[in-house]
Design goal:
By secondary structure, this protein is of the alpha/beta class. The protein has helices at 16-25, 46-52, 68-81, 98-103, 124-131, 166-189, and strands at residues 5-11, 32-39, 57-59, 86-89, 108-112, 135-142, 152-159, 193-196, 199-202. The protein is 33% helix and 25% strand.
C-alpha cells in the first residue's frame, strides 16, 4: 500500500470537521493521516481534539504577526517542519494568503456550508434562508486567492425545510460536512483528482 499522505489541518473553533477527519484516519486503509493541527486561537477546542488523538498541534496567533504574509510564513514553517503534504481548512477563520497557496499549490482544501458558487463568504446558511432557497448543502473545494471560488471537488445537497431556522439548517448541513470532507480528502490523498482549469476531474469510483 502507498504511503499515507500527511495532512495539516488549520482550525479556529470547536473542530467538528477536524474530528471527522481524525476518525476517518483511524482506519489504516485511509490514504491520509493527520500530522499536525494549527490554530490561530489558543482556546480553540479543536486543540483538545488533537491532544486527545495524540496529534501534534501548534498555536500561531495571527495578532502576533505584522501582516498576512508573515502569518502565512509562520504557518508554512510549521507545516513543512511536520512534512505536511495536504492542507485542510476546517473552520479556519482567516483568509489564506498567496504565500501559503504558492507553497502548497493545488493541495489546500476547504469546506463551505453551501452549494458553491451560491452563497460564498460568511453566513452562508443565513443567506440561503434569506434568499428563500429550497435546497442548499455543502462543498469541498480547492482554495485559490478568491473567496470560496476555487475548483469544486465534491458537493452534497441538503433540503431547506419550511420549519428551518439558521440553527436547525446549520446542524443538518454540518452533519453532511463531516462525511463529505472525509470523502473529498480521500479522493485527493489517493491521487484521484485532477484540476483542469476551473474543474476538478475525478478518476475512478467516487
Amino acid at each position: 500500500m502507498a504511503a499515507r499522505k500527511r495532512v495539516g489541518v488549520l482550525v479556529s473553533g470547536s473542530g467538528t470537521n477536524l474530528q471527522a477527519l481524525i476518525d476517518a484516519a483511524k482506519d489504516p486503509s485511509y490514504p491520509a493521516e493527520i500530522a499536525l493541527v494549527v490554530s490561530n486561537v489558543a482556546t480553540a477546542y479543536a486543540l483538545e481534539r488533537a491532544k486527545s488523538a495524540g496529534i501534534a498541534s501548534q498555536v500561531i496567533p495571527h495578532g502576533q504577526h505584522k501582516d498576512r504574509a508573515s502569518f502565512d510564513r509562520a504557518i508554512i514553517d510549521a507545516l513543512r517542519q511536520n512534512q505536511v503534504e495536504i492542507v485542510c481548512l476546517a473552520g479556519f477563520m482567516r483568509i489564506v494568503g498567496k504565500e501559503l497557496l504558492d507553497a502548497f499549490g493545488g493541495r489546500v482544501l476547504n469546506i463551505h456550508p453551501a452549494l458553491l458558487p451560491s452563497f460564498p463568504g460568511m453566513h452562508a446558511v443565513r443567506q440561503a434562508l434569506q434568499y428563500g432557497a429550497k435546497v442548499t448543502g455543502c462543498t469541498v473545494h480547492f482554495v485559490d486567492e478568491g473567496t470560496d471560488t476555487g475548483p469544486v471537488i465534491a458537493q452534497v445537497s441538503v433540503p431547506v425545510l419550511e420549519t428551518d431556522d439558521e440553527d436547525s439548517l446549520a446542524k443538518r448541513i454540518h452533519a453532511e460536512e463531516h462525511q463529505l470532507y472525509t470523502r473529498a480528502l480521500k479522493l485527493v490523498a489517493e491521487g484521484s483528482t485532477r484540476i483542469e482549469g476551473r474543474a476538478v476531474r475525478i478518476n475512478g469510483p467516487r
